Structure formats: C-alpha cells, structure tokens
Amino acid sequence: MAKFEKFGEFLLKKKVINRKTLSGLLASQRLVKEKIGTIAVKEGLLTEDELADWLAEFMGIPLFDKKFETIEKGILKTVPRKMALKSGVLPVGTDKGGVLLLACAGPVQMSILQNISRMVKKQIKLVLTTPTRLKKMQNLFYSMGYDTSITLAKNSDIDNAGFVIELIDKLLLRAVNMKASDVHVEPGLDDLVVRFRIDGMLAKAETLPYDLANKFISRLKVLAGLDIAEKRRPQDGAFYFKPESLDVDVEGVNVRLSVLPVVHGEKAVIRILPPHDEIIHLDSLGMEAALLESFKKSLTSSHGIVLVTGPTGSGKSTTLYGSLQMLRNETTNITTIEDPVELKIRSVNQTQINSQIDFASALRSILRQDPDIIMVGEIRDSDALRVSLQAAITGHLVLSTLHTNDAPSAVSRLFDMGAEPFLVASSLRAVLAQRLVRVVCPYCGQWSETSDSELSMLRVERVQLPQVKRGKGCDLCNGKGYKGRSGIYEILMVDDAVQRLIMKKATSEQIHDFAVKERGFKNLRKDGILKIKEGTTTPEEIERVTME
User: Fold this and answer.
1) pLDDT tens-digit profile of 314-324?
2) 474 with 443: CB under 8 angstroms?
3) Cβ burial, residue 117 (10 Å; 0-12/13-18/19+)
C-alpha cells in the first residue's frame, strides 16, 4: 500500500483504468465526495466483486469468502451493535490463533480498531467484503437476533393501536429475514391468517384473532397512503418499511401493497421489493454456459426483438433486469415501459404504466425519445405487439416478455395476437423460456440413490441419473430442505432456417422438432435433469414446474 499513495493511481498502474478515466473519476469525486472505488462501480467501470478484489490487493487485507448465511455462533456479541455499525465493521469469527475477524467494505481508521481491540481484549484482523454483502450481513444477523414472536397478552391488546403497529413491524421484519417475496394477510370466518411466500411456496406464519383484521388492514392502508374508508374497491399503493417501533437497526425495504375486498373483509398482499439497483448478474441465474453465451449474443444485436417467456412468477423480470444492467453504458439510451417498476436501475429511463397511459401509447412516445434499447414489461395486446415489432425492424433492440409454456410456442402466440409472419421472421432474434426451481439446501443436502419412481417420472435410465441430492432440513433452511431458487431454461435462436419456418407459419411443434433435430435444442426438462445431476435441485421440483 505504501508503494501507491492513492487507490486511483493503483488502478491506473494495474491498467484497470486509463489516465482519462481517472481524471473523470477525480472530477466526479470533487462533486459527490465519495470514494474513487464507489464512483467507479456506479459508473459501471468495475463490479463490486472486482472492486473488492483490487481493494484487497491494495490494502493487503484478505477477502472474506465464506457464505454470509453463517458466521461463528455468539460472535456478534463481542462488539456492541451500535459501535460495529458506526465503525462499518461486523464480527464474523476468530482465526486459529484466537484473533477476532472483522468484516469491512473498505479502510477502517486505526484508532477505531485499537478501541475495539482494547474493549474485546483480543487482537483484530480485518477481512474484506463488498459494501452490499456487508450491509446484507448486518441486516440479516442483527435483525435475526430480534424476537419477532407474537404474543397476545389480553384482549385489550386488540384495541391498542401501538400493539398493531408493533405486530406489523414484527411480521414484516420476520418476512424480510426469511427472504419472503410476498406476505398474504387473509381474513377467514373467525380468524386472520398471515402467510409468507418463500422460494415460491406459501407457508402459514401466524394465525391471529379476526378482531384484528380491520385494524391490521387500516394500518397498512395508512402506510401506503390509501383510503381507509374505501372497502368495496381494490386499492394499490406502496411504502418504505423500516421497523421504527422495534429496537433493531436494519436497512429499510420498499414494499408494494394490494388490497382486495373478499367475503370476510379485505385481503392484503405485500410484495417485498429488491433494493434499488440491486446487481443482477446473468451468469448467477443458473443458465448453462452455452445457453448463456447464446442469450448474451442475442442481446448484442443492433436491432430486433428478444423475448423471455414463462408463467407469472417464473423470474422473467429478473432476467430482463439483468440484461439491462449488462447492456447499460454511457453511450446507450435505454428506456423501459413497466407495470409496475419493480427494480429501479441507474442509467436506465423507466416509465410506469398508469390509467392515463398504456403500453402501446407509451411505446409510441418512447420512439420519439431517440432510444437504442427498449424494454417492454409485457406484450399484452395486438397494439403493443405491432408497435414493438415496428420498433424492432427500424433499428431498435426490444426486450419483452410473453406468457407461453415454452420457447417455440412464442411464435404461435405472436401469430394469434395478429402479427404478420414476415414481421415476426425479420424481427425476432431469440426466445428464452424459463422456470424457477427451489435449490437444495447447501448445509443439509445429502446424496442418495435415485428411486425407480423418480427415474420413471423423469423418463431417464439409472445410468443417466444414479444419484440425487436432497436436503434433510436444518435451521438455515427452516426445515424445508431447500434454500433459494435457481432457473431452468431453454432458448430458441432464430437463424435463417427458423426464419423460413416462421414465414411458412409453421406450428410450434414443427419449429420445436426442427430445433431439436437440426440445432440441438434442449428443452426445460432436459436442463432440469442437468440441474438434478449437479445437485442443484430435486426430481420433484423439475416435475412440478415442467409437468405438461
């Protein structure tokens, strides 16, 4: 570190950036007062992981390479929470010599480290991680230690507004900790049921007295700025959640609220949204290497349309957001039309559809904005399709989604919506179909022999799939045996031969058979079987999402 006084000069010496880029970074730094590395990440010159690698070399600090779901038990208590948060560190373990390991995302003042060392009566060693990973670890471990159990001491709690506020804060904090995507609040005949959707599956979280229903929903409406007196019409809103009533310091999250009148009152669904500009790497979504290369190739087309297909909740938006993050740069104008905007992305112009503007009219307006790349959240009708195809053949790259079961069926779906064969053939570049499957828990997963029924279900021989990996269930996966989700994919690349089939209005079956025979097309089930062989998922999951 002594050899290079400044991190910017270090990056220059390592040929990560050139002198002109460094001058630009320094000019930006004078305006925003942020570190050079942070600005480089924001401008897309480095990823957070690349920044951490270079910082580790520059500072002489080793990388913290463990999975951040687990740290040494009881280690958090060695350093007071407020001190750790203020100092930008997190105790994560001890090494063989008893030295306390503190995770950090950058330089930490020596005086702070000396104070911590004196207080814990141990030597201190820093390990480096990315700012995003450090923030996630702080949120996860400090909030997990908070008791979110619900206790109704007496009936008077139901009439206590403070109790309802605390109840909602606890439930939403628990949902965030468990990485739930949605929270369902459902009034029944004589109770109020709260369910979490985790890894795509709903599970009951709490059963509360029915008398809480009105107060619970009213509190959510207040947070989202909705009309609490209106109970006969659906309402939609959003708010920023941070558990103010609880003694826990965590990063807030954006949530979207939908309220719907039902027989026994009003049902609410809370969608927990990802952080703004969350980094999505296409190579982390589970695509096989050759398929990923083909998909990326289609995204580099100067014009045309690339479609991502699948049912609701199959991860299509995530794939498109990852594609936009890969494509964005300072020389490209990217504009999106979405309903709703689920992830806000830096350097991308995002348009929210509302009652005043639909996809087709928004798309016509965007075409007057000199776009290079357009993302249409979903092609819902013939008008949106017609304008999208016209944009694709007039020099724009269009990314969008469709609801079809597989990639070849997308062509038939476009025909059904009124598209002309010559327009589809000349504009369509690729169709990616996908599903999400639950991933076997890495902490309790064990290999076992494949059963005869599983081989029959997947229609494969034992020699092709001798073993499968299953999770037994542990604390880290809440006893489910699964932790997280990954994608299975198939891609139809539209070359000259496929274009000729489209011009002849070939059926989806004909296109599928040609792709299998002549292009080595692998369908979703085959990709799923590959994921089973790798130990990523189980036969039951592949059957569940690919069952015809």
Assistant:
1) 999 999 999 99
2) yes
3) middle
